[in-house]
Every structure is written in structure tokens, then in C-alpha cells.
């Protein structure tokens, strides 16, 4: 995976830091495909195990009133097919209501539970900060995902006395190395991944979500343009495509233990 750090130096060095397992959190089916499917395809191609957790069922999505009774099933199937195109088959749902997601203790506990079960090297999540330059990135459910996951990874995940019922069930506290955030303000981006070789796979995954994006031509044009712009911001050569992340060290060599 070709990467480059932004001016705000990324703490992640792909030449030194090995990734074997990634757990991705998003609000709705299709969020991950827009934000990170290129990087995910690169990971799975390199043998990394990637899992998804979709927090809502996407029940408020779509445009056709006639699909209301089947929209959850439809979007679930779309996400399954899209994930498979980038090498992901392990998908979890929290079944929260679309448009009503909050970083409640119930949601945070569910996030902690899943992270402790899978014990990934990287948790990938939507960003908790609003992007005022493109508000569509900052759906309230997206922000709620970012806040819930950030609260979960520190301190609850590594605190053996947080949600003691989890430890009692055999899910021991876990210190996560890395938190990668996407869909946040551009000024927060500090890590860029060259996904040029995976652009078509990313777009194919997005195309699966036909219930949400009927104008495929406009969607393709917009996504390609954004990836070229992101590559330019990241300092890659002209014509490349990239995805951007805000990478945060949760537990590294310089981390001081304590809650």
C-alpha cells in the first residue's frame, strides 16, 4: 500500500508498522465504500483481514416509497455484495435506527464488545468532527459513529472496569494501536493512501448501492474527481488517485498507561 504523510505528519509508517486485522465502523450501508473502499481493497489484496460494522440498517435511505417495506433487506444485500468486491465477507450490524444514531452508552458498549472480540490492529471509523466545506460528509449519524468509536477506543476498550459485564463474558480489555478516521475536515487529514490500482474496484462497490445512487455517471465523475484532488493534496504524481485519513496513535511506544 503506497502512502504519504501530509504536512501534519502521520504517525503511521507502512514500512515499520504491520497491519494484520482491520475493523471498520460506518453509519449506513455505502459509507465505507465511498470513504475507504480503495484502501480496504489494497489491504485485503495484501492478505489483511478486514471486517465491517454498520451501525444502522439504513432504513431511512432510498428514494422509492414503494421500497419502504424491503429497504433494510435491500441495503443489507447491497452492502454484502459491495463488500465482497473489495475482499470483505465479515459484516456486523448494530441495527440502530437510521437518522437516530447517538453515541449512547449502549452503542459504545456494543463497539467495545466487537473490538474486544476481533482485537484489530486498526479501527477505521467515520470522523467525529463536522466538515463545514462539504456538509454532506457530516450526516449526524456519521458524527455519532465517530464520537461513539472514539469514546470506545479510549478509555473503555482498555479499561477492565468499564462495562464489567464484557470482561465477565470473557472479553478482556484490549489496547488498540491505531485509529484511522475518514470523512472528516480536510485540514485533519494527515495520511494519504494511493488507491490508483483499486479505483475501479471502489467504483464497482459503490455501483452496487443502486437504491441510493441512481445517477451513476454523475457519481462516477464526482468520486474520480475527489480521488484525484486527494492525491494532489497528498503529494502524489499527477493522474494518481488517493484516499485520505486522520490517523491517530492510540497506543504506541510513547503512550503512558493510565485512564
UniProtKB/TrEMBL annotation:
Keywords: Zinc. SUPFAM superfamilies: LmbE-like (SSF102588). InterPro entries: GlcNAc_PI_deacetylase-related, LmbE-like_dom_sf. The keyword Transmembrane does not apply. It comes from the Bacteria. Gene3D superfamilies: LmbE-like. This is LmbE family N-acetylglucosaminyl deacetylase.
Amino acid at each position: 500500500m503506497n502512502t504519504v504523510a501530509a504536512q501534519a505528519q502521520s504517525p503511521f509508517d507502512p514500512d515499520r508498522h504491520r497491519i494484520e486485522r482491520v475493523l471498520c465502523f460506518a453509519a449506513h450501508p455505502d459509507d465505507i465504500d465511498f470513504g475507504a473502499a480503495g484502501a480496504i481493497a489494497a489491504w485485503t489484496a495484501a492478505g489483511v483481514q478486514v471486517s465491517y460494522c454498520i451501525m444502522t440498517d439504513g432504513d431511512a435511505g432510498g428514494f422509492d416509497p414503494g421500497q419502504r417495506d424491503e429497504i433494510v433487506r435491500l441495503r443489507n444485500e447491497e452492502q454484502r455484495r459491495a463488500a465482497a468486491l473489495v475482499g470483505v465477507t465479515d459484516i456486523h450490524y448494530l441495527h440502530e435506527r437510521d437518522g437516530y444514531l447517538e453515541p449512547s452508552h449502549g452503542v459504545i458498549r456494543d463497539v467495545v464488545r466487537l473490538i474486544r472480540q476481533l482485537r484489530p490492529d486498526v479501527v477505521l471509523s467515520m470522523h467525529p468532527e463536522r466538515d463545514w466545506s462539504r456538509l454532506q460528509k457530516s450526516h449526524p449519524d456519521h458524527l455519532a459513529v465517530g464520537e461513539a468509536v472514539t469514546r470506545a477506543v479510549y478509555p473503555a476498550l482498555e479499561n477492565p472496569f468499564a462495562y464489567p459485564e464484557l470482561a465477565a463474558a470473557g472479553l478482556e480489555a484490549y489496547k488498540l494501536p491505531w485509529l484511522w478516521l475518514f470523512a472528516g475536515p480536510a485540514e485533519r487529514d494527515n495520511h494519504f493512501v494511493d488507491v490508483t490500482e483499486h479505483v475501479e474496484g471502489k467504483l464497482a462497490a459503490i455501483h452496487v448501492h443502486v437504491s441510493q445512487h441512481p445517477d451513476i455517471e454523475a457519481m462516477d465523475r464526482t468520486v474520480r474527481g475527489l480521488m484525484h484532488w486527494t492525491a494532489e493534496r497528498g503529494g502524489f504524481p499527477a493522474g494518481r488517485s488517493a484516499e485520505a485519513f486522520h490517523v491517530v496513535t492510540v497506543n504506541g511506544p510513547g503512550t503512558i498507561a493510565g485512564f
